[in-house]
Specification:
An eleven-stranded antiparallel beta sheet has the order 6-5-4-3-2-1-15-14-13-8-7, with helices on one face. Strands 9-12 form a two-stranded antiparallel ribbon. It has a domain at 31-179 and 227-275: outer membrane lipoprotein receptor (LolB), chain A. Mean pLDDT is 89; it is low at 1-22. By secondary structure, the chain is mainly beta. It is globular and about 50 Å long. The chain has helices spanning 31-43, 118-121, 134-139, 191-198, 203-209, and strands spanning 47-58, 61-73, 76-82, 87-91, 99-102, 111-113, 155-163, 166-174, 180-183, 189-190, 216-217, 223-226, 232-238, 244-251, 254-266. It is 13% helix and 36% strand. The chain has five helices and 15 strands. Keywords: Signal. InterPro entries: DUF1571 (IPR011465), LysM (IPR018392). Residues 189-226 form the LysM domain.
Length: 284
Amino acid sequence: MIQRSFYLPALALAGLLSSSAMPAAAPAITTETLISRLTDAIDNLKTLRCNVRAQERLAGKYQQARTAMKMNFSPYKVYLRNDQGIEVLYVTGQNSGDAWVYPNSFPYVTLSLDPQGSIMRKGQHHSVLEAGYGTISDLLDSSGERINPGFEKTFRYTGDTSVVGRPAYVLRSRYPQFRYVSYKPTKAETTKTIAAKFGCGEYRILERNGLSPGATVAAGKTIQVPNAYGSRITICIDQKLYLPLVVQVNDDKGLFEKFEFSDLVANQPIPAPEFAKGFKGYKL
């Protein structure tokens, strides 16, 4: 199954969030209700159009990008175009499992690339197979399958705000216990599997241990792994759609990543031709 996550290809909260309180008429909501509605909204997404502004820390430096994306979740299809003119199209069951990528640079030809490979994963935290909001659902998962369970219980509804004029609920997590821990698999495991066990995301495992995306860690080899996704996480949730408008993650080094979602259109049919390589307006 393809895991959905917030993602931007190759591509602080200050200034986005209004400090003014929402009108008194805004309905009160509990943490439990907010989390339930948030996860339901994400899990029930059939299609999504939006624009995303991303800031990601890569090798100690910050990279920013703006991307327009459209997604169909079952079967999984995604089209992305960033502000550098790079286009990506991935459709389940097509192109031998590769994504079509137009790099908008010499030699200006469309490439077929492994979406999990090092070329497409370079310079980004998440793969094209993880577009969407699924990582947030995973962070709030209370199934108890994690090596360090309990992180999901640190989220709290902390009040209301507005994000570019849209009323939003604020959900925060504070986890001062965040740190890197030693992990020695008893059998060979991929970095993706290890990341799922810790709920930490794969990128920092790769960065900290000098590994390539999808690398296999041999049995008995010790690596360093974050024990959670972050030390502080802020999610601003649209009060109408119950989908995130802002996601900001901090860790032991400061800001790790921030994603701002705008122009959200959820669960409106997207014509099949818009996920076709030859669609009018695409350079693919």
